[in-house]
Each structure stands twice: as C-alpha cells, then as structure tokens.
Write a structure and sequence with these properties.
Blueprint lengths: L2 E5 L5 E5 L4 H10 L6 E5 L5 H12 L3 E5 L2 E5 L10 H4 L9 H8 L1 E5 L12 H9 L3 E5 L2 E5 L7 E3 L5 H11 L5 E5 L5 H12 L3 E3 L5 E5 L7 E4 L4 H14 L2 E5 L3 H13 L3 E5 L2 E5 L9 E4 L10 H9 L4 E6 L7 H8 L3 E5 L2 E5 L8 E3 L3 H13 L3 E5 L1 H4 L6 H7 L3 E5 L1
Parallel strand pairs: 2-14, 3-13, 9-10, 17-18, 21-22
Antiparallel strand pairs: 1-22, 1-23, 3-5, 4-5, 6-8, 7-8, 10-12, 11-12, 14-16, 15-16, 18-20, 19-20
Helix pairs in contact: 1-2, 1-7, 4-6, 5-6, 6-7, 8-9, 8-10, 8-12, 10-12, 11-12
The chain binds uridine-diphosphate-N-acetylglucosamine.
Length: 417
Amino acid sequence: MGKYVITGGSKLKGTVRINGAKNASLPILAASVLNNSTSEIKGVPKLKDVEVMLNILKLIGAEVKQEDTAFVIDSSKIDTCEVPEHLMRKMRSSIFLMGPLLGRFGYVKVSYPGGCEIGPRPIDLHIKGLKILGAEIEEKYGFIEAKAKKLVGNEIHLDFPSVGATENLMMAAVLADGLTSIRNAAKEPEIVDLQNFINAMGGKIKGAGTDTIRIIGVKELHPVSHSVIPDRIVAGTFLVAAAITGGNIYVENVILEHIEPTLAKLKEAGQLIKTFGDVVEIKGVLPPKSIDTLRTLPHPGFPTDMQAPMMSLMSIADGTTIITETVFENRFKHADELRRMGANIKVNGRIAVIRGVKSLSGAMVEAKDLRAGAALILAGLSAEGVTIVEGAQHVERGYENIDEKLRNLGADIRKVD
Ligand code: UD1
C-alpha cells in the first residue's frame, strides 16, 4: 500500500491537461456489453477502477484490446452473466453491469458491490427500477439474481436523482420493448455522455441532462467509436491545488459548463479565474476568502466529489465556512485528518463548520476514501513541513498519476510504495 510524501510550500505553476472522466468511462465501458459487436472508447483514464471494470468484462467473455488510451471491446463473445464476487467487491461501479447484461441476455447474477466508505450506498433504486421494467429479482446470501425474458419499457420515478440508478436503468431500457421514461433522473454531465455513447451505437435516448429521460427500445446496436468527456472533478482538484498554494496554473481540456459550480465557489473564495475556450487560468489568492455556505447537491449544484478538496481550501480561509453535505451521509472523514494538520473543523452530522487558520502543518494522515485522499494531498501542498498521506490506493481509484502531474507543476510530492 503506497503513500504520498509531500513537502508543502511550493506555489504551483504551469499547465496541466485533464484526462477523461472516470465517472463517464465506467458506465460507458459497462454499456459496451449491450452491443453484440465492437465499441471503441477513447480517452479512458488509467485508473484502478477502470482496470477492475476491464477485468470484469474479460472474465465474462468480452475481448478487450488496448490502443494507448483507447479500448476496443468486442462484446459479441460474452458467455456468462455472472460477475465474480471478488471483483464486485472491489468497486461499487461493477453494479453498472446489471442493467446492460439483463437488458441484452435476460439474466444477471452479481454480489453486493464494494466502493468508498462514504456512508451507506444502497442500490434499492437500481433494483426497484429494474423490477418496474419487468425483472424478477432475488436477493439472497449476498447475491442478487435478476431474470427477465424481455424487459418491457415503463414509467420509472426515482425517489432521489441517483447518478448510478439513472445510468443503470437507462442501459437496461436500451434493448427493452417500447418506451421507458425515467423521471427525477440525475442530470450529471456523465449521464449525457452515456446517452451520447449509446445513441452513437444506435440507441434512442433523449433528455439526459434534464430530469426526464426517455428511451425507446431498439432491437440491436452497431459498432461505435466514442471519446469520453474530460473529468470535471480532476479539473476542480487541480484548480484548488493552485488556489491553496497561491499558484498560477492553466487547466486544459475542460468543458466549462461542467465545472461552473466549482468555478463559482472558487470565485467566491476570491480566486482569480479566466477562461479561454477549453482552458481555465487560475491565479491563487492567499488567504482565500471563506465561503458563507457551501451545500453539496446533485448537478448542477455543487458536486459532493469537490466537497473534501474545498474543505482543505477553507481550512486556511480568512473566516468561517459552513459546509452541508446533502448527498452522502458519511463524507466528512477527511475532517479528522485535516484537524491533525492544525485545521479547526467541527462536524455535527451532515454539517461541518470550518474556522480558517493561518496555516496548516505537515502530519501523518490517512486517506479513507478517494476524494478525502485528494483533499489531504491538497492540504499537504499548502502545509508547513512534510505531510505523509497514507492510503494511496484510494486516490489511484480516481486520479491518474496525480503525483507526477503535481510534480510537473512544481510541487514537491512523491509516491512511496
Ligand atoms: C456517483 C459517482 C460519485 C459521486 C456520486 C454523487 C460514479 C461512478 N460515481 O456515485 O463519484 O459522488 O455519483 O454525485 O459515477 N442512493 C440510494 N439508493 C440507491 C442509489 C443511491 O439511496 O439505489 C443514495 C446514495 O446512498 C447516496 C445518494 O443516493 O446517498 C447519491 O448516490 P448516487 O447518485 O447513486 O451516487 P453513485 O452513483 O453511487
């Protein structure tokens, strides 16, 4: 298990290019099983979670070829719809295979998925929706077995706009008979990317990015080539890295609309931001201003995945910030670790009160989930002295060579295995 060793104090300078989005790549890789032929998916980041998804695809019989950051997946040879338990447990996103496998083959058996420990992450909305499409589902001994001769389009109203459930149900409905409507659907940009991928292989989906998605079932799909969108959370993380070090960097390959909620809060924090096409320049201003209220919400609200990085920035802000985490129940684990670095943070349930301090000090801390790990690296970049962030495996689930990219911007960070 690796750790990052960071000596704080370097102001970041230079340009970083943002890789393809993890949260777009994973459902799109899963959706490739809908296609009884080949899918070329470009811009897939090199991440642990992607590796797990590709291993699952290979184990169920798909042929996976890699050409640089493009993967060509031939799903015509899939010969089992049972996802091995040890791989399911490695990653929550393995649940994405339920919808497409069931939609195409009428059968799927998976175990309950694993993933980050950021609160209970039930899959009741996925299961409820699949049942509405006609699946018979049995849950026993930790396994979920779903069967359906043929899924049939129907009206689904989600109790909460879950990203994963919206994507899983969209995929399940692609080959179903008739029309499916998903209401109160999640509106995240990754859902639009999934729609674009599926439509490019012959699916008929409309409305992704709004709260009603309509899918007209089709009989079959055809070969496809698609590039995934840039990762808005990685972009946001680098922007905070510049802000927290008082640096000046250019972040390339972003879709501005996708990072607007993060840019708005960085501007409120007094950071100087200019945008040029798909590039954002940020000049960090220290100390950052505190942000009165920061509330995580489904898109286009402030993303829960940026909450931890923003908490690191607010730790050294001039004033007090109140963060309310409305999406996940247990997503403040980084607060304890930031306190070890001298931050003044009080947590009460879903609310964190951060009173800015002059500076953080280096300490030994542990990343307990993906975004918490990123937040601790950011805190380490700003802290006086040396910070050791243990738990690099969590960070590697979502950030491609983060240490190398930060080093290229002048940070003193190395990964030790
Ligand atoms: C996705 C993202 C993750 C991001 C999250 C919220 C991927 C691979 N991951 O996760 O990075 O933090 O969206 O933007 O895209 N819920 C239920 N029942 C369900 C499903 C979800 O109660 O069946 C609840 C969850 O417990 C959570 C909330 O809904 O409290 C949001 O979860 P969801 O939107 O489903 O997140 P994920 O798809 O898991």
